[in-house]
Amino acid sequence: MFIIKYKKIFIGVSITLVVLALLSLFMFGLTVGIDFKGGALTEVVYKVERPAQADLNKNLEALGFGSILLQPTGELGYIVKSRDLNDSEHTLILQTLSGGKNDILTEMSFNSIGPSVGRELARKAVMAVVLVSLAIICFIAFAFRKVSKPVSSWKYGIIAIVALLHDAVIPTGIFAALSHYYGAELDTLFVVAILTILGLSVSDTIVIFDRIRENLKNQMTGSKINFSEVVGHSLEQSFVRSLSTSLTVILVLLALFFFGPVTTKYFALMLTAGMFFGTYSSIFLASPLLVLSEEWQSKK
């Protein structure tokens, strides 16, 4: 199959994308949202017409409450993200948003998260990512424990983890650029997106690896196995299935991005990027790395 024939090109593309994502991450960093650093979130909906965002931003900055992020939501609403507010500051923000006319808007919700709660959420989020990653490693090690020739079972696990890192790093780099240019904030939905990406990506990779394992069993006749041909044949059997499944999910996520609420737009975009690069890594990275590993092993 052409993927195996040009494996070094596809691996090179993945390396380039990961390097660019890391550069984006180090240059721009991630803007932490109130979920993790603490703060207040106020959502209001205007009854008739929504004031211009530029005018409201100017008025909110004049309050001297520090950095305040104003995001449109729906056709008539705004979401205001700020530092933690007391009752009088909360009232002052509502008055600023309404221009002193309280009957022109309705406060839909107000949530306040203290710094200690934010730190606890951050700790649990990191723990969740680590535990899920460990669980995936253990599952792969168990599933491929009987595979030993011509590539050892532990190499399947290592390559799957490399693919997972690829699938998590690239969307994170994209999110860092969105944070810098559009003010996207790292929140609990970001963590959910990363965990979902890890699960979906490893699922696709394991399906292809399992097909390789089955084809290897069918060719265990005592003669020398052409591993690259087995992997190429396995990819041909899995190619359409992987693309069809991923495309179906991506179409749903794009619909959520374009037509869903503003609060889930970055979540949908992250998942879309994760599905795209996860499918790419399963087909164009993980399997070629298996072949490359076998070639290096046979040269020793």
Description:
It comes from Candidatus Nomurabacteria bacterium GW2011_GWF2_43_8. Residues 125-292 form the SSD domain. Keywords: Cell inner membrane, Cell membrane, Membrane, Protein transport, Translocation, Transmembrane, Transmembrane helix, Transport. The protein has a 4-stranded antiparallel β-sheet with strand order 2-3-1-4. The protein is elongated and about 80 Å long. The protein is α+β, with helices and mostly antiparallel strands and 300 residues long. It has 10 helices and 4 strands; from the N terminus they run αααβαββαβααααα. Strand 2 (69-73) and strand 3 form a beta hairpin. Helix 6 runs parallel beside helix 8, helix 8 runs antiparallel to helix 9 (227-259) and helix 8 runs parallel beside helix 10. It folds into 2 domains: 2-31 and 117-299, Multidrug efflux transporter AcrB transmembrane domain (Multidrug efflux transporter AcrB transmembrane fold), CATH 1.20.1640; 39-113, 2-Layer Sandwich (Alpha-Beta Plaits). The mean pLDDT is 83. It starts with a helix and ends with a helix.
Entry keywords:
300 residues; alpha+beta; Multidrug efflux transporter AcrB transmembrane fold; Alpha-Beta Plaits; four-stranded antiparallel beta sheet; 10 helices; 4 strands; 70% helix
Helix content range of the residues, please? 55-70%
- Identify the CATH class of the largest domain: Mainly Alpha
Give the number of DSSP strands.
Answer: 4
Biggest sheet strand line-up: 2-3-1-4
Q: How would you spell out the order of helices and strands?
A: HHHEHEEHEHHHHH
